[in-house]
Amino acid sequence: MSTLESQASAIRVSDIGRTFPVRGGLFSRPKMLRAVENASFVLPRGGTFGLVGESGSGKSTLARIILGADEPTRGEVRFGERVFGKRARESDTRWRQRAVQAVLQDPFGSLDPQMRIGEIVLEPLRIQRRGFARDALEKRLLELLAQVGLPAEFRRRRPGELSGGQRQRVAIARALALEPEILVLDEPVSALDVSIQAQVLNLLKDLQDALGLSYLLISHDLAVVAFMSSHIGVLYLGRFMEQGTRDDIVERAAHPYTHALIAASEPDALDVQAIGGEIPSPLAPPAGCVFHTRCPAAREVCRKEAPPEHRLSATHRVTCHFPITSKA
Q: How far apart are CA 218 and CA 185, in angstroms?
């Protein structure tokens, strides 16, 4: 058992697959879109697992499965002793609705423009825990606003009166209302100005330390993921290309795709090579290694055979025929 696998886990994902039938025309036979293929990872309790990859890599599909908004075709998700697969016990589903909350990419689109900030933040409490006394709700609202660094008077404002960073703080406060254990952060700063991104990321780190939260962070930006995460998984066409600790991925990247993501987030980085082209359609993934059509180091075997998984250390593994194990 690896060091990561032996740690207490907030989430343990095992061999998750998600396939969608897609019909091209009225009379045509549906094709199978493999959005996620045999995905496994562990989010350590109190840590952050970062899912990084381009649009279309399967990150959001995995997030929906974790949140319960979608069900896997196969495999299972464990939260401690609670198991979620194609079916889940009603009591476990109710637990997940409270304990696992989301902070989404668009801080304006996710907030009702007609509601006041106080109503938005308290909405989960009103839905999940009816019967709260008015004074108790008001006290909880003020606590939540203070936790995310917003003045108490903001409770009377509407989303349109706030900046993008302030709206995202409201979204975070709403996610904290039910005292969750896990937050799914889906591109939480990509819609914000660069000057505001660091403030929101630092707030999320402070909240994690103060409340003991576990984060599943989704981003296309490896720099954001590296700043926040204790562990990182690199996704491409629904498959993990590489997984490891932050240092494994940032300092010892072994997959050409990981190197390409480093090049995209750090244009001046040495010993990494950017890639061109676009991610292929998941309806028609390439044979062999799915990355070979864009890989600068692809060889004949890469075009014909799916690569094996190599364990480079107790925490670091890569799926590649020719992993980059040295910068020499």
A: 6
